[in-house]
Write a structure and sequence with these properties.
Elements lengths: L23 H31 L1 H12 L5 H16 L2 H26 L2 H9 L9 E3 L8 H4 L16 H12 L4 E3 L2 E3 L3 H9 L9 E5 L5 H9 L4 E6 L2 H13 L5 E4 L12 E7 L7 H14 E11 L8 H13 L5 H5 L3 H8 L2 E7 L7 E6 L4 E2 L2 E2 L2
Parallel strand pairs: 1-6, 4-5, 4-7, 5-6, 7-8
Antiparallel strand pairs: 2-3, 8-10, 9-10, 11-12
Bound molecules: S-adenosylmethionine.
The site of S-adenosylmethionine (SAM) has 24 residues, from helix 9 and strand 5.
Length: 392
């Protein structure tokens, strides 16, 4: 879920949108996937949800689920597994899931050939030399950080993972983003939801009116940093990611769109940022792509680089306890079927607890959209801290 779908900036003059497009064949092949996804999430899923709601056992399990706000992980897992069996007895549910998987695979089976038809132009678009905006910098690692949990996965069924195809940037920005993802109805994104507006709403959860320096771990191709630049135009923007491809692409786009960024190719759980150096941290769609251990390390690291009194805002899919049992089944499915190995593990965990463990205060979590998404967790580093951490 890392792409920009609305790159155009009035008057940026930097050519952040290509002056060519996909072929008619390439575009229509993706458009039909967008329509299938809309039918799956907007029509079939509602029928399946109604059938589930009428099932007596599902009613009892759902009541248990609603009442259990602090569920034991094993019990929760068993409840979702049984609910899935009930769902799977319904052909509408099975067809809905089949279509979701079909679209998820075809995004790349059709998307890559569609981009290939325009390879020469897209290659030129992503590799042409762009003058860096004053103050911008991109620092690549001499020894690439590559945790196994990140390198071994074809994320979202992308062949080769995040860096598996040199033109994934254009594929997301000018193919899958505007023709498929834009309509919502996949993974945690609700049907009809506007993914660009969701990002802006998440950024608006920062409690202060202005920030000097905002840091985004796992910043990918700078979609969120670009949106932060609109909400907090005065803030200096910093980010890190493991993906050289996303970072280089994001740096190129930020320069074309004329906003300065400081990007580093490094593991966000062990950054080279100084202690107490940023007054805002935001994450977008990151935690469900990291195992719990890495998340805990990340929170510790963010705590270290944050100034006393600084704010942190996380935006990620909702925990199972915050959504209906039927929707839990839908989310849980992504783990095995859309190459999201940590999805369920994180959705049955509590990011709030992890943040409290790391020393944050005023931790709160809430939803700002349908079906609990985006799910916001926000907190503050205490104003008074000792060298060891929080003041006694
Ligand atoms: C779903 S993408 C979200 C990207 C970006 N936050 C956005 O809003 O578009 C998750 C990103 O997290 C990055 N990531 C995962 N683990 C990381 C880690 N330990 N350090 C830095 N980046 C990481 C991935 O490379 C990927 O770019």
């Amino acid at each position: 879920m890392t792409f920009m779908t609305k790159l155009e900036r009035k008057g940026d003059g930097g050519g952040s949108v290509p002056d060519f497009s996909l072929t008619q064949r390439g575009r229509s092949g993706l458009q039909i996937l967008g329509s299938i996804q809309r039918y799956s999430a907007g029509s079939l899923r509602k029928v399946a949800a109604d059938t589930f709601a009428e099932n007596e056992e599902a009613k009892a399990l759902s009541a248990e689920h609603e009442a259990d706000k602090n569920p034991d992980k094993k019990a929760l897992r068993q409840r979702i597994a049984r609910a899935r069996e009930i769902c799977e007895s319904d052909p509408n549910y099975r067809m809905e899931r089949f279509l979701q998987r079909y679209v998820a695979e075809e995004n790349f089976n059709r998307g890559i050939p569609a981009i290939e038809e325009r390879r020469e132009q897209f290659e030129k678009f992503v590799t042409e030399k762009v003058e860096p905006v004053e103050g911008s910098e991109l620092t690549m690692a001499a020894e690439p950080p590559a945790p196994k949990y990140w390198t071994d996965v074809d994320w979202h069924l992308e062949p080769g993972g995040w860096d598996g195809y040199d033109l994934y940037g254009p594929l997301f920005a000018f193919g899958l983003g505007p023709l498929i993802f834009k309509f919502g109805g996949y993974a945690a994104v609700g049907y009809g939801d506007d993914i660009i507006e969701q990002r802006m709403s998440a950024i608006r959860q920062f409690p202060k009116k202005s920030y000097e320096r905002i840091y985004e771990p796992g910043c990918g191709g700078v979609s969120t940093l670009g949106a932060i630049n609109k909400v907090f135009p005065g803030a200096e923007l910093y980010g890190s990611d493991l993906s050289p491809l996303l970072l280089k692409n994001g740096y190129m786009l930020a320069n074309k769109m004329n906003f300065p960024v400081h990007l580093k190719h490094e593991d966000s759980t062990q950054t080279s940022e100084p202690d107490n150096s940023v007054d805002g941290v935001i994450t977008y769609a990151l935690h469900h792509e990291m195992p719990p251990k890495a998340n805990k390390e990340l929170f510790k690291e963010m705590f270290r680089i944050m100034k006393p009194g600084a704010d942190i805002v996380l935006s990620d899919p909702p925990p199972f306890r915050a959504v209906s049992l039927f929707h839990s089944v839908i989310l849980d499915w992504d783990t095995d079927h859309r190459a999201e190995p940590f999805f369920s593990t994180i959705l049955e965990s509590s990011l709030e607890e992890m943040m409290e463990e790391a020393g944050f205060e005023a931790v709160e979590a809430y939803s700002i959209g349908q079906d609990g998404y985006p799910w916001i967790t926000r907190a503050r580093k205490p104003a008074e801290t000792t060298e060891q951490g929080v003041a006694a």
